[in-house]
Amino acid sequence: MNREESLAGYKGLALKILKDMDAEIGDLIRIVKGGQAYEGILIPRSEYGDDKHIVIKLRSGYNIGVRLTPDTKVEKIGRGEKPAFVAPPMPEQKQALPKVSIISTGGTIASRVDYRTGAVRPALSAGDLYSVVPELADIARIDAQILFSLYSENITPVHWAEMAKTVAEKIAEGVEGVVIAHGTDTMGYSAAALSFALQNLPVPVIFVGSQRSADRPSSDAATNLTGAVLAAARAPFAEVAVAMHETTSDTSIVLHRGTRVRKCHTSRRDAFKSINAQPLARVEENRITMLAEDYPKRDPTRKLVVKSDFCDKVALVKFYPGIDPAVIDWYVDKGYKAVVLEGTGLGHVAKSLFEPIKKAVDKGVLVAMASQCIWGRVNMNVYDTGRDLLALGVIPLEDMLAETATVKLMWIFAQTSSMEEAKQLLKTNIAGEFSTRSLYTVEENKP
Amino acid sequence: MNREESLAGYKGLALKILKDMDAEIGDLIRIVKGGQAYEGILIPRSEYGDDKHIVIKLRSGYNIGVRLTPDTKVEKIGRGEKPAFVAPPMPEQKQALPKVSIISTGGTIASRVDYRTGAVRPALSAGDLYSVVPELADIARIDAQILFSLYSENITPVHWAEMAKTVAEKIAEGVEGVVIAHGTDTMGYSAAALSFALQNLPVPVIFVGSQRSADRPSSDAATNLTGAVLAAARAPFAEVAVAMHETTSDTSIVLHRGTRVRKCHTSRRDAFKSINAQPLARVEENRITMLAEDYPKRDPTRKLVVKSDFCDKVALVKFYPGIDPAVIDWYVDKGYKAVVLEGTGLGHVAKSLFEPIKKAVDKGVLVAMASQCIWGRVNMNVYDTGRDLLALGVIPLEDMLAETATVKLMWIFAQTSSMEEAKQLLKTNIAGEFSTRSLYTVEENKP
């Protein structure tokens, strides 16, 4: 490795300063500026970075970028240790234990952090896992594979199809459950996608992520993974679920139904919440307690049906005051099959959108309505606006998440090109994605 | 009124059936279909309605539309009473009480429901108010005016400007506080807008809405209005706030800071929540308790500064897997000044959006990042994606709501056409819209 490579991403002034002091990525650096001192490990810059910042990883695990000004003092105070990661020997696999397959798609949970620089690498051999979470050897015989190494914001409907097929292969091999390690950012969307793609599941499919990387004392990776493997191995339900912390403490993991779960905090360990529904189950002290009453039971003899395709011509449009109504026309002109409106309150948008919505429906685009409130149910019979929208042909999404509705419509339009069948599928509860009104019966106004 | 008008909105088959039985809007109707019987008051149809539904208002207050099928039986079982609404005499205004101005923009709270048909009409003379909520006469001398009669989903940035100017006029007249009655759907957006438009406030400006109309036993209208008037008259702070139920019971009203509040449930009375912040204050048993520590104090000598304009060339784009990156280009080509991305997690979007974002920034469009998680803070220094986006020039919005950020940028680009000044304003905490990190100091990577 030459000096340039060892200062990857640095250029101009920042590169010069670092070269002059003979620093390398991984060295301990001290920066003094404006009376404040920062100490940390020098980490690489992004290729898009400027030449005016030096980025270090603080002892807390956070990275900071310090802008170089004439009064900034930078000094090297220690050499980086070369990493020496040696996996411990594989534990003996206990033949009596259930077999669980772990499929990694990337994200914090599936990564091993280079303690020197904070660089994150995929690491998901069974050996790696046992080395990080030795308890797993007492829960299940694990087989692990890396499918992708993606930050979850880069996961697309094409990746959902790949995941679904890979899960199906594992189930065909006879595992008692599948765990999917996934970045938390879009884990809710992927869990919804697999809920529709994998029908008639014989065993549970459990998504798991972590909000804090394994190099931080507050990491939730080990607890979440243990809960997920336990659920895959032993849970009585056969559904797609997400396993994450129930509270900010480490004592319990909840399993959220894949179509009902949403990331509701940027950083807390209990960021995932079941919306408009009870969580499926809780894992506490290695015991699983069911919380939902109605769920498909685990049944290894059941024949999995895989419908893994998704259509990418479905848009999610969040309404706000002053929104340009022409954005609807734009999607229609691009040949979109469906538009999910994230409206206000009980399912409303401004009158200014009525014309483009009418045009969309007339051109055979399915327009559906969820609420940006997130909690609660759309009810488009209460006010004129809702009734007018129903009359225009907008389909109310009951208490379904806008995110789940978007995923469901992507899935629907890969199953059928018939608008009637698409509407029928949208109104059919396929994977617990909505519940029907319990208080009173309403027949919707249909045009 | 001829027969046609008295069956407003009905046509075709539905009109014929209703005419044949000599029914009018307001009559009591019984519909039997599929073994179910529905009884309620016949209400008008939307102009967009079909000819196959009859809509009645059930005793519960809900409207239902029943589709006419060959087996549907419709009968008139009672004649509607003609409404006879007589306002009670105005109470004596007590000269010692503070003066509060109520400005109505529409919405459920500002309306009087025609008990016969459920039709909603604006009704906001002081006399109307005292007749609905007699307690108000003991709290303040009230002057009331109707500014608009709009469902709040139809309120736009132009209306925000009108509201701000009207509030300023009332304050110039020397009132101790202003209450704005508003539909709940976009009340959070309007409250944020007035927080930026009305600077250096001498007295409180309190938005108030209701989730259930006054004709329902569960209505929250009276309690919310009482809390709002009390806060306008006597609260020690001088900010824009929203007054709504704290819980589902009627015992307390909370006052949320206008830039921090969000409607988080479609129908519950406690739908409004302060996000990433304490509420400002609580009203309980006619007493106001401050909950926030830091707030501008009420000071009638302070000189209000009105900056009421908003720019409509600001877009809010919610990210989701598979989003078409060209939607960013579309806004740029339309001459937009700013795009707020509602990204995932700590502030991420897919790599496929990097090129359009770069192009937008290069063309002088401000691109800012909030999180669709809603709770928590964006932190774009933790992962590569965030660092790359910062390097591309995306501005992180700290713990600001995406909705508030959109409103703030609409306001900013009406104040300045300089990008540097706009960025500076965005990063300045103008109305408590964000808080700075408390745990550690980070200097952002700027390109």
Structure keywords:
Rossmann fold, SH3 type barrels, disordered C terminus, 3 domains, 24% helix, 23 strands, 447 residues, homodimer, 5-stranded antiparallel β-sheet, 8-stranded mixed β-sheet, 11 helices, 24% strand, alpha/beta
* Number of DSSP-assigned strands of chain A: 23
Number of domains of chain A: 3
Q: How does CATH name the architecture of the largest domain in chain A? A: 3-Layer(aba) Sandwich
Q: The CATH topology of the largest domain in chain A, please? A: Rossmann fold
Describe the fold and architecture.
2 copies of one chain form a homodimer. Chain A has 447 residues and is of the alpha/beta class. Chain A folds into 3 domains: 74 residues, SH3 type barrels, CATH 2.30.30; 208 residues, Rossmann fold, CATH 3.40.50; 113 residues, 3-Layer(aba) Sandwich (Rossmann fold), CATH 3.40.50. In chain A, 24% of the residues lie in helices and 24% in strands. The first copy, chain A, has 11 helices and 23 strands. Chain A has an 8-stranded mixed β-sheet, sandwiched between helices. In chain A, strands 4-3-2-1-5 form a 5-stranded antiparallel β-sheet. In chain A, helix 5 packs parallel to helix 10 and helix 7 packs parallel to helix 8. The longest helix of chain A is centred in the middle third of the chain and has 16 residues. The relative contact order of chain A is 0.09. At the A-B interface, strand 3, strand 4, strand 20, helix 9 and helix 10 of A face strand 3, strand 4, strand 20, helix 9 and helix 10 of B.
